[in-house]
Structure formats: C-alpha cells, structure tokens
C-alpha cells in the first residue's frame, strides 16, 4: 500500500471538497492544499478518495499534533 496520492485521486478530492478545508471550512489557497487521511495511513487507512479530505496545511499540522498528543497518553 502506498502513501503517495495518485493525481486522479487528488482531482476527485479537490472537486468533491470544492477547495474548502474540511477541518475549518474556509477556502484553501493552492499553495496551502494538503490531503488528510481520515483513517491515518499509519493505522492502515487507504489512500482513496473516500478516506482523503482536502485541508489547509496548518489545519493538517494541528490535527497531527493533537493526534500525537493523544497517542502519547495511551
């Protein structure tokens, strides 16, 4: 299983999400676009349109930091 996101999958996610961050619900400029695995790739989440969402780079970083804190508590 690859973490790399195929171009056609990226296009599907961008079209579906309408260039709106799925965390903060604000428009995402082209230079801040990232794709977030809803079920983390590290936990077996697939790199499919159904498991990806478009997010700001900053929102993605905050989500990752919060997840790291939760995992550290376990």
TrEMBL record:
CDD domains: HNHc. GO terms for molecular function: endonuclease activity; nucleic acid binding; zinc ion binding. SMART domains: HNHc. Residues 8-61 form the HNH nuclease domain. Gene3D superfamilies: 1.10.30.50. This is HNH nuclease domain-containing protein. InterPro entries: HNH (IPR002711), HNH_nuc (IPR003615), NA-targeting_endonuclease (IPR052892).
């Amino acid at each position: 299983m690859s973490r790399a996101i195929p171009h056609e999958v990226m296009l599907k996610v961008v079209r579906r999400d309408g260039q709106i961050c799925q965390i903060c619900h604000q428009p995402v400029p082209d230079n801040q676009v990232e794709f977030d695995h809803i079920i983390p790739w590290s936990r077996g989440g697939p790199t499919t349109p159904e498991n990806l969402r478009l997010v700001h780079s900053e929102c993605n970083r905050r989500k990752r930091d919060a997840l790291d804190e939760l995992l550290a508590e376990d």
